[in-house]
Amino acid sequence: MLMSALPMVTLAAEGQTTAYILTDTLEPGKNYIIANKNDGEAYALTNNDGSIAATSVEVSDGVIYTDNEDIIFTAVGSDTSVTDLVNNGRYLAVSSSGASFNSSERNIAWTYNGDTHRLSSKSSSTSTTTRYIRYSATNSNFTASSSQGDIYLFEEVTALVPVTGVTVSPTTATVEAGKTTT
Predict the structure, then answer these.
(1) Which pTM does this prediction carry?
(2) Interacting residues of 101 by C-beta distance below 8 A, sequence separation 6+
């Protein structure tokens, strides 16, 4: 077979983008968005220069696409235990006053129950009261309290962006998904 008879495919990929997919786990070393809904218009917990804030995000089919670093939290810890959620050098904290950011590590366990959609921690290592992160529609912001509220986690993944420019020569060829050919 002559080389000129082989189909030539030219791909003009636009690259990769970061997506955040709905998850039911919280693991150290991964990046997350903390949001109040799992579909449609939602609000993401935001670090606004060290203050708790809410940023509008769109959730479509359990996925958020964003490059807003103020809403991306890294889970810190060891093995399967998350001891801190950090964004831009600020550590998410809970207390009887609500949610806030600290400038230093807390080293107090965070837990997420994917079945009940509860993200919780305690205000100190000696505290017996669990505080839940929740969104307050009244205040249009996130807070922490002993009252439970639905919270959803979206885990960072690298997604392939659809290819937009494809040229096939000759004009017909059989290409199988997952196969490499020359």
Answers:
(1) 0.79
(2) 47, 50, 51, 52, 87, 90, 91, 92, 93
Given a contact cutoff of 8 angstroms between Cβ atoms, the answer to whether 146 and 129 are in contact is yes
Q: Which three-class secondary structure state does DSSP give residue 5? A: helix
pLDDT digits (tens, 9 = 90+) for 51-87: 999 999 999 999 999 999 999 999 999 988 999 999 9
Peptide bond into 28 cis (omega under 30): no
* DSSP β-bridge partners for residue 40: 59
**Cβ-based neighbours of 173, under 8 Å, separated by 6 or more:** 7, 9
List, in order, residues 6 or more apart from 177 with CB less than 8 Å away.
Answer: none
Rounded-to-10 torsion of CA 38, 40, 45, 48? 160
* Cα–Cα dist 154/152, whole Å: 7
Q: Are 35 and 59 a contacting pair, CB within 8 Å?
A: yes
Give the Cα separation of 2 and 16 in Å (integer): 35
pLDDT at residue 19 tops 50: yes
Transcribe 9-62 into DSSP letters. Answer: EEEE---EEEEEEEES---TT-EEEEES-SSEEEEEEEEETTEEEEEEEEEBTT
Secondary element (H or E) of residue 83: strand 81-87
Lookup: tokens for 16: 């990769």
